[in-house]
Specification:
Layout: E1 24-30, H1 33-42, E2 50-56, E3 75-81, H2 91-109, E4 113-116, E5 120-123, E6 126-136, E7 139-146, H3 166-170, H4 176-195, H5 199-207, E8 216-221, E9 224-233, E10 239-243, E11 246-250, E12 254-257
Parallel strand pairs: 1-2
Antiparallel strand pairs: 2-3, 3-7, 4-5, 5-6, 6-7, 8-9, 8-12, 9-10, 10-11
The chain binds biotin.
Length: 262
């Protein structure tokens, strides 16, 4: 399909939100929407600003990886937030963003989206998107990359992860602006819940989509690897893994699914 522009000359008042998207900064091409949102944060921008691009030249993924895109086909955006929570609770916003994407895609388009803790978005086991949360000063930037249209073969393979696009499962290209609006409205809703102290509720919204429970996993935590069966998510968003040595609670890491776990 020919690529299209997401030019947001459309008005933020189209969004039914309290905070998210009061200002939308559209860039046809940028290094990274996360980096741009962090720059805006440093310059004093208010929370809720959204940076959206048609393509990134230095898109960032988790664990220092690049995030590549097919220009004009993906959703690439970042939301600047200034939460009032404790530092240890910030990571829940990343789970909240994943839940927002999953809820919106399920309710608007009936996509059977699942998650792989902490923030991979999957369809039929293949990765369709991811979340990257970054902080600078007191600001939190939640970046979302979603492979909307185009061919998964054109995207880079991530370590051990097959990629897919929404179009592949929908059977036709999707209007990226509509997908974006639906997700921003969900992010706003979840952020309101988070700021009102409903952190466990936000984790619960995420938990409904989680695919790793009961699976054999190896979780990469820095240089260490914890292997066992993923059993549950705590109300703080940490992953419980039952290992040969006992139960292990993991706050951050990368889950690798191990063959023979179903
Ligand atoms: C992952 O590794 O799964 C997370 C990928 C997050 C990519 C998005 S694209 C928009 C935003 N800007 C970036 O540079 N990264 C995030």
């Amino acid at each position: 399909m020919a690529s299209s522009s997401l030019d947001t000359s459309w008005c933020p008042s189209e969004l039914a939100t309290e905070v998210v998207g009061h200002s939308i900064r559209y860039c046809p091409r940028i290094d990274s929407t996360n980096e741009q949102a962090l720059r805006l944060a440093e310059a004093g921008a208010a929370e809720g600003v959204v940076v959206v691009a048609d393509t990134q030249t230095a898109g960032r993924g988790r664990r220092g990886r690049r995030w590549l895109d097919e220009p004009g086909q993906a959703l690439l955006f970042s939301v600047l937030l200034r939460p009032t929570c404790e530092q240890s609770q910030v990571a829940i916003l990343s789970l909240g963003a994943a839940a927002a994407c999953a809820e919106s895609l399920a309710s608007e388009y009936s996509f059977p989206v699942t998650t792989k803790w902490p923030n991979d978005l999957l369809i039929a086991g293949d990765k369709v998107g991811g979340i990257l949360l970054e902080q600078r000063g007191g600001a939190v930037v939640v970046g979302v990359g979603l492979n909307v249209n185009g061919r998964p073969e054109s995207l880079q393979a991530q370590v051990g992860t097959a990629l897919t696009t929404l179009e592949k499962h929908y059977g036709a290209p999707l209007p990226r602006k509509e997908v974006l609006v639906g997700i921003l409205e969900k992010i706003d809703d979840i952020y309101q819940q988070f700021q009102a102290g409903g952190l466990a509720e936000v984790v619960d919204r995420y938990r409904r989509f989680e695919s790793v429970f009961g699976r054999r996993v190896c979780v990469h935590v820095g240089q260490e690897v914890v292997c066992g069966t993923a059993t549950a998510l705590t109300d703080s968003g940490t992953l419980l893994v039952h290992t040969a040595e006992g139960e292990c609670e993991i706050a951050a890491g990368e889950v690798e699914l191990v063959a023979g776990s179903e």
